[in-house]
Amino acid sequence: MHTEQTLMSTTPLNSNVQIPVLGFGVYQIDKANTTDTCLLAISAGYRHIDTAQIYHNEEEVGAALQQCGLPREDIFITTKIRYPRIGKGKTYLRALQSIQKIDPRENGYVDLFLIHSPYALKPKERKELWLALETLHEEGRIKAVGVSNYMPEHLEEMKEYATIWPPAVNQILLHPWTQQRETVDYCNKHGIVLQAFSPLAKGLELQEPRVAQIAEKVGKSLAQVLIRYCLQKGWVTLVKSEKEERIKQNVDVFDFSISEDDMALLDHFDRPGKPTRF
C-alpha cells in the first residue's frame, strides 16, 4: 500500500517526468472563477492542475500559473484534446493553441497532454490525435503524452501507429464502486500510470454507512477516506471543489491510512460493467 506519501509525493512517468500523486481538477468550474479557484488550490498545496480543451478554461488555468508566484517547473499542468481538426496540420495547431493558452512563453509547455476519449472517434482520428501529440512531445512542448477513458482494446490499437508506447498515463473513472479492473490490470502490466477522476463518485455514494464507519474510525470525512483509498491503490488522484474549506480538506489525506481489512471492504463495493462513456 502507498502509505508513506505526502502532498509533495510524485509518481514517475515513462518519459522521465514526475507527476504529483494528488491533482486539482477544474471540470465544470466557470471560466470567471477558474483562476481564483486554482490560486486557492495552489495556496492549499496542490502542485498539479488538470484541465481540458472542452472545459473552456485553459487560459484561466494559465493565468493562475502566471500569477501564483511559483516557478513554472513547480506546477504540473495536464490538458486534453477531444477531437481532431480536419485539414493537414490543423490537429497539431489545435493542440499547440492549448499549450499557448496555458503557458504563453515562447518555449511554453504543458507537463502532460492526453487524448480525452476514444469514443465517438474513428481509429484514424485517434491516430491523428496521437501523432499530433507525439510531434509536440518531440518539439519539447509536451513533457509526457497519455490518454483518458481508454480501455485495453484502444491501448492495443495504438501499437499499430504509436512511436511512443505505452502512453504515460490513462486517466479513467475510478472509485470503490467503479474499479475497471480489466483496464487497471492492463495498465499495471504495461507500466501505464493510472489517474483516478471523480474519486468521490460525484458525491452519490457519500451516504454509504460502511464508508462512514471507516471515516469515524480514522477521524476523517467520507470524502477524505475515498481520496485516501485511491491514493493507497497507487492511483494519481484528481479532486475538485470550488469551496475553500473543501479544497483544503481534500489535501489533508496524508496523515492517516486505511487498514488492509477496510481497503478490502471498499474493494468489494465494485459494480462490474462498463463505466459511462465520456
TrEMBL record:
<feature type="domain" description="NADP-dependent oxidoreductase">
    <location>
        <begin position="28"/>
        <end position="269"/>
    </location>
</feature>
<feature type="site" description="Lowers pKa of active site Tyr">
    <location>
        <position position="80"/>
    </location>
</feature>
<dbReference type="InterPro" id="IPR023210">
    <property type="entry name" value="NADP_OxRdtase_dom"/>
</dbReference>
<feature type="binding site">
    <location>
        <position position="116"/>
    </location>
    <ligand>
        <name>substrate</name>
    </ligand>
</feature>
<keyword id="KW-0560">Oxidoreductase</keyword>
<dbReference type="Pfam" id="PF00248">
    <property type="entry name" value="Aldo_ket_red"/>
</dbReference>
<dbReference type="InterPro" id="IPR036812">
    <property type="entry name" value="NAD(P)_OxRdtase_dom_sf"/>
</dbReference>
<protein>
    <recommendedName>
        <fullName>NADP-dependent oxidoreductase domain-containing protein</fullName>
    </recommendedName>
</protein>
<dbReference type="InterPro" id="IPR020471">
    <property type="entry name" value="AKR"/>
</dbReference>
<comment type="similarity">
    <text>Belongs to the aldo/keto reductase family.</text>
</comment>
<feature type="active site" description="Proton donor">
    <location>
        <position position="55"/>
    </location>
</feature>
<dbReference type="GO" id="GO:0016491">
    <property type="term" value="F:oxidoreductase activity"/>
</dbReference>
<dbReference type="InterPro" id="IPR018170">
    <property type="entry name" value="Aldo/ket_reductase_CS"/>
</dbReference>
